[in-house]
Amino acid sequence: MPLFLNAKGRVWVFLFYGSKVPASGAWQIQRLGCILEDILKTIALGQMLSLCICGTAITSQYLAEKYKVNAPMLQSFINYCLLFLFYTVMLAFQSGGDNLLCILKRKWWKYILLGLADVEANYLIVRAYQYTTLTSVQLLDCFGIPVLMALSWFILYARYRVIHFIAVAVCLLGVGTMVGADILAGREDNSGSDVLIGDILVLLGASLYAVSNVCEEYVVKKLSRQEFLGMVGLFGTLISGHTAVRDIASIQWDWKIALLFVAFALCMFCLYSFMPLVIKVTSATSVNLGILTADLYSLFFGLFLFGYKFSGLYILSFTIIMLGFILYCSTPTRTAEPAESSVPPITSIGIDNLGLKLEETLQEIHSAAL
Question: Where are the domains of the chain?
């Protein structure tokens, strides 16, 4: 019963072959096991982000339905303040070219545009709920995924395969199933005051989210996570601050409302802090596919908190989205970096998905197995 040591130092025991395991076969089993392990990690990380988004949705709904508080910019402002206090201050005390002043001297206008895109994306999506229906928001919000893939193709030089487009189509089918479940469950009572304006706001917000996510992937893979979060915290605080001040004066405060604001801000802070870590080892596209389940988690919690009606289509929708997500993560997306480029070298060396970084060390693993 031979033992094979892979590149990560784990010992794999192959019981089915006894002492006659072919070296090539054992190596293939090792490779498959590592890929499956990393895909499971990717799924777990994506669902952790979905739960953070679910927390923001639940707290926002409590504020809107129970306490009649509608202050999306104030909610975002608190999150940007936390990012500022933690990451921007961290940049201020760094030395060398990564110092806050050095970054501002070189790229201040770029990060102003990034902060504006991030702030307005959050605002437009929340604002759209006042004009259009939940169904429209859920469906049109997915417009950000093809926009994100197109931007990744031209800006990040990501190269997709046919299976990736199939996987995205499967995920969008899952979203359609979820919307159908909403309609059957009777959650689509409000038709909105002006559906066309609301739909346009959703499309604009989804596009700005795509811009923000592509910029995030570029910065965290080629520069640093601290730089992205520090700059977003700085300019997000400045851009959203003036509107947030007006929201503070319009709210009848008590400790429960304050606690909900704190819970929302902590969920958003965790989301912003963890998302760059996940994007760095996967890609912005795979992250956006993984967090499609956030609406479903919100619905499941809503069964107990808000009295939603259950539908078996919710389970089917979750299953379809997860199948599409696994399908997307199972195949590598290559980066066709130009031969002559002035940008810093990408840290992932052209591989976006976690499970597919194994291809970089394929020969090393093969040699270890032999």
Answer: 68-353
